[in-house]
Inverse folding.
């Protein structure tokens, strides 16, 4: 059983910072791309940032220069450092991972999501 668990969300004032963490656990053999997505009320889920196994990063234009994604392969974790937060960053943030896991003597690939963590930017 593979699980992704996010933490670090909360309420922050405009201009403030938060750091989100996502821990992947289970019989993981390898993690390929990891990413953060968000969904605001009444809007579709969008990808915010992603990072490959080679640590190549991409960002949606609205967060470039303000957010930084990173990963710790030894700990199967991915982080999202968010700075200069704006009210429009308010959303539920989800961790996502493409990974390979062991199932008995076999290996399987899958895409997994965390349960989400709420980020609210408000004065």
């Amino acid at each position: 059983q593979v699980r992704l668990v996010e933490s670090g969300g909360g309420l922050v004032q405009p201009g403030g910072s938060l750091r989100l963490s996502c821990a992947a656990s289970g019989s993981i053999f390898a993690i390929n791309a990891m990413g953060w997505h968000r969904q605001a009320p009444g809007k579709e889920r969008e990808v915010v940032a992603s990072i490959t196994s080679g640590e190549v990063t991409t960002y949606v234009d609205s967060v470039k220069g303000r957010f930084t994604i990173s990963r710790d392969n030894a700990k199967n974790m991915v982080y999202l450092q968010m700075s200069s937060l704006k009210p429009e960053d308010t959303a539920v943030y989800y961790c996502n991972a493409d990974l390979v896991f062991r199932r008995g003597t076999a290996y399987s690939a899958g895409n997994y999501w965390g349960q989400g963590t709420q980020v609210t930017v408000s004065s």
Observations:
- The chain has no helices and eleven strands.
- The chain has a mean pLDDT of 96.
